[in-house]
């Protein structure tokens, strides 16, 4: 089941962030997030307060989380977007995470299907997201779901320097 997060979900979302940070630090996850910089408990709390944090729950356990809104960061100006569209027609996915204990079990795919339906229900015709260039598993995952790469840019992302973001988009 995927639903809007509630306050009681925050510690579990933070635990997923920390598990991913551990995987990054151990070289198992090809991401350039930094513990205590991004994402953090505050990332989840801000999204919760804005009504933008969603969680996937199975048997009472939070297995995945994502932030869904229409906010394109300033980095998105660097995208080579195939589709020119007003911002009210674009839904953006941020910080999709799956608990590493559940990798490869379809949680990310279900969260993406939810994201697409959420965009449609919100009157959006276009979906956008980003990932980091070195995160080839995520890039392949999004490609399999029909997302097309729309350029990249080097930047400081959420306080993390020297990040190469790859932009992706899909028309519904």
List segments where confidence is low: pLDDT < 50 over at least 5 consecutive residues.
none
Distance between the termini: 23 Å
Let me know the number of strands.
7
Spatial strand order of the main sheet: 1-2-3-4-5-7-6
Report helical residue fraction.
Answer: 25-40%
SS field, number of helical segments:
4
Largest sheet: 7 strands, mixed
Which whole number gives the mean pLDDT? 97
Give the strand content: 25-35%
**Helix/strand-derived class?**
alpha+beta
C-alpha-based Rg, rounded = 15 Å
Question: Can you write the helix and strand succession as a string?
Answer: EHHEEEHEHEE
Shape: globular
Compact description:
The protein is an alpha+beta fold and about 170 residues long. The protein contains four helices and seven strands; from the N terminus they run E-H-H-E-E-E-H-E-H-E-E.
Give a topology summary.
Blueprint: E1 2-4, H1 10-25, H2 41-49, E2 53-58, E3 61-69, E4 90-98, H3 107-121, E5 126-132, H4 136-144, E6 148-157, E7 160-171
Helix pairs in contact: 1-2
Tell me what you see in this structure.
- The chain is α+β, with helices and mostly antiparallel strands and 172 residues long.
- Helix content is 28%, strand content 33%.
- It has four helices and seven strands; from the N terminus they run βααβββαβαββ.
- The chain has helices at residues 10-25, 41-49, 107-121, 136-144; strands spanning 2-4, 53-58, 61-69, 90-98, 126-132, 148-157, 160-171.
- A seven-stranded mixed beta sheet has the order 1-2-3-4-5-7-6.
- A hairpin with a 2-residue loop joins strand 2 and strand 3.
- Helix 1 (10-25) packs antiparallel against helix 2.
- The longest helix is centred in the N-terminal third of the chain and has 16 residues, at 10-25.
- The two termini are 23 Å apart.
- 33% of the residues are buried.
- The model has no long low-confidence stretch (mean pLDDT 97).
